[in-house]
Design brief:
There is one protein chain. The chain is built from two helices and six strands, in the order ββββαββα. It has 94 residues and is an alpha+beta fold. It folds into two domains: 51 residues; 31 residues. A hairpin with a 4-residue loop joins strand 2 and strand 3. The longest helix is centred in the C-terminal third of the chain and has 25 residues. The N and C termini lie far apart (74 Å).
């Protein structure tokens, strides 16, 4: 883990992608710290304490089989809606 001080005003990070304020000190993993420093978004700091940021990956709430079944229905529902709209639309004007 590495402590870095934020120097860019357009940096969003963390599990909820909140905006990090310029001058705030955060504790991030080494790879993230190197990437931010190399792109000029942060600089190394000698301060002792910083807010620890964790990066999480969200998982789908529905089982994969259930999601697959829903995705298969999408084109069918779209076609049904399109066909219903075509039935209501006049084919020629008087």
């Amino acid at each position: 883990m590495a402590l870095v001080e934020i120097v860019a005003n357009n940096l969003h990070a963390g599990a909820n992608l909140r905006k990090l304020e310029v001058g705030s000190v955060v504790d991030v993993d080494d790879a993230t710290a190197e990437r931010w420093i190399s792109t000029g978004k942060a600089k190394e700091t000698d301060k002792k304490k910083g807010e620890k940021l964790t990066f999480e990956v969200a998982t789908p709430s529905a089982p994969t089989a259930e999601l697959y079944a829903l995705q298969k229905q999408l084109p069918t529902r779209w076609q049904q809606k399109r066909n219903a709209r075509m039935m209501l639309k006049p084919r020629w004007k008087n």
